[in-house]
Amino acid sequence: MSVQPAAPNAPSAEHELGQRVLREHVASVYSTYRVSTLTHMAFVVVFGSIIYSQLKDPSLLFWLAGLLMADIYVFFTPRWNPTRPARESAYWARKISRMVTLVSMVTAVVPWLIVPHDNLPMTSLLMAVIVGSCARAAQSLWPLKPALFGYTMPMSLGMITALAWQGDGLHLFLAAAGAAYLLLTLHAGIGQHKLLTESLMLRFENEALAARLGEQIAATERASEEKTRFLGTASHDLRQPLHAIALFGAALENELRDRPEGRNAERLMRAVNALGASLDTMLDVSRLDAGVITPAPQPVQLDALFLPLNHTFAARAEQKQLQLRVRASGLWVQSDPQLLHRMLSNLMDNALKYTMRGGVTVTARERGDAVWIEVRDTGIGIAPEQSGRIFEEFYQINNPGRDRSRGLGIGLSIVQRLSRLLGHPVQMHSRPGRGTHFRVVVPAVSTPARSGALAPAAAVPEAASRHAAALALPSRVLLLDDELEIREAMTGLLRSHAIDAHAVADEADAAAALRRAIGEGRPFDLLLCDYRLADGADGLDAGLRLSQAEGAATPLLLITGETSPDRLQRVRESRVPVLFKPVVADLLLQAMAEVAVAR
Asked: For residue range 506-523, what is the model confidence (pLDDT) as tens digits?
C-alpha cells in the first residue's frame, strides 16, 4: 500500500505517522540517486554505441542525445537530503516519480527504432536491457509505488507494443513473455512495498509506545516524589504540635506521679505515643527511601530473635483468642539483627491484624545455603487480584472504613523496602478464606564458635536502657527552636528533671547565650537544636556553627520533624545525633545523657 499525505481532518497522530513512513521511503530511494544516475548514463552510452554500430540508423543518435539530456537533468536538479523536514516528503516523492517516468518515457521510444529492423540479436539485447532495468527498478524503486510504476511501465509497454506490432508468431510470443514479466515484477514490487510500509509503521508505533511509556514512568516518578514531599511536609507540620503536646504531657505526668490525677496524664501519654508511633511508621518509609539506613550484616541466632517477638505479640494474640506459635530452630543466619527483627515484626503484626480465628505460626527451616523464615496465618487471605497491591503504601484489604486498629497500611511496604535493602527475598502465597503464608529467604551461616559474642537484636534496647540509667544528665542545656510552644514545653520538661534549661528562638540569641555562659564560667553542657528554623534557616548548619563557637566545643543534639529523603540524607552524612519528633521523654533524656557523656 502506498502512503499518501493525510487528509486535513485526519487525526494528527496518524498523519504524523504517515509522514514519517513516507520520509523513510523517500530516503531509501534517494540513497542510491547519484550512483544510479551516473551508472545509467554510462550504460546508455555503451548500449547506444553498440546498437548504432549494428543498425547504422541516425534516429538512434537523436534518441541517445535525448536520453542523455534527461539523465543530465535528473543528475543536476535539486534533490532530497536528510536535512529536509518530514512535511516535504510528499513533494520529493512526487518529484523523483516524475523524473524516473521522464527517463522511462524517453527509453520507451527505442524499441520502435530497433524492432522494425527485424534484427533478432539486437531485439534480444534490447529485451535483456529492458528486463534488467525493470528488475533493478523493482529493487530500488519499490519503496515508492508511483516511481516503480512510472519507471517500469512506459519502457515495458513500449517494448511490448513494438513487438506485438510486428504480428508474426515469434514477436507475439516475445510480447506475451514481456507482458508476463512486467506483471510479475509489479506484483513483487507491490508486495515488497507493502511489507516495508507495515514494518516501518510497526517500528514507529513501537517507538511511540516506548516514548509514551517513558513519559508515564517519568510522571509516576514525579508523582512518587511529590507524594514523598507531601508526606514529609505534612509529617513535619503534624509533628511540631504533637512534639509540644508530648513534652507538656511528659512534664505533667512527671509532676502528677503518685497522685490520682496521674492516671489521666498516663492515658494522655498513651494516646500521644500511639499517634507518634503512626508518624514514626511513615518516617521509616522516608528513611528507607532516602537511603539513610545502612544494614550491618552479622551472624544472627534466630531463636534469640524469635524470643522477644513471641513476648511482644503473645499478649495481643491471647487478647484476640488466637494461638501464636513461634518455634525454635537452632539456626543462624547472616543479616542485620535489628532490620530483620523489624521485617518479622511487621509480618507478624500484619498476620494478627487479619486473623480472626485459628492462629499464627512462625518457623525457620534450612534449605541448602538459605534459611526460610515463614509466617503463616489462618486469616482472611488475599485474593489474586489484590496480591500485587499489598506492598503498596496505605493499601489495606477489607478495611474501607480505615479502622485505626489495623494500622496505616504501611507495614508490608516497609517489609518490601527492607527486603530490597537486606537482599532477603519475600515470597507470598495465599488462599482467600484460608490464610496467608509469607516466606523470607535469608542466607544461612554455621553456628559461631562463641555464641555469646553477638547480642540478640532485642537485647540491644535493654542494654541501652541500662546504660542510659547509669549516665548523669547534663546540668545546663541550651535549646534553639523558633516555636514558642516547644520552647516552653521543653524547658518545662527539663526543669522538672532538675536541668537548667535556657531556650532561644534564633542563632544570634543562641550565640549571645553561649558567650554569656562562658563569661560567667558556667558553659552549657549540651546544645539542643531544631532542624528547621524561622525564615528557612538551616538548624543543622546553625547548630554546627554554634557548637564550635568560642572554642567551647558544645555537644550538639539535633531534633527534627523532617522526613524528606534529601534532608534525612544530610543529617546522616553530618553524623550529628538526631531525634525525630515527637520525642518520647525517656528517649530524649537518654540521648541527652549519652551525648553529654560522649563529650
From this structure: 888 888 888 888 888 888
Each residue's pLDDT tens digit, 136-147: 877 788 888 888
Assess whether pLDDT exceeds 70 at residue 411. no
Residue pointed to by grid coordinates 509469607: 438
pLDDT at 9 exceeding the cut of 60? no
What are the boundaries of each domain within the chain?
12-166, 232-292+467-599, 298-448
CATH code for the domain defined by 298-448: 3.30.565.10
Close Cβ partners of 521 (under 8 Å, ≥ 6 residues apart): none
C-alpha to C-alpha distance for 417 and 463, rounded to whole angstroms: 28
What does the buried/exposed string (b/e) look like for 142-164 if buried means 16 or more CB atoms within 10 Å of the residue's CB?
bbbbbbbbbbbbbbbbbbbbbbb
Strand, coil or helix: 138: helix
Residue 206 sits at φ, ψ, to 5 deg, of -65, -40
First to last CA, the chain: 83
All residues at 6 or more sequence positions from 95 whose CB lies less than 8 Å from its CB, including other chains: 77, 80
Residue 525 and residue 594: Cα distance in Å, rounded? 12
Q: Which CATH superfamily is domain 232-292+467-599 in?
A: Response regulator (3.40.50.2300)
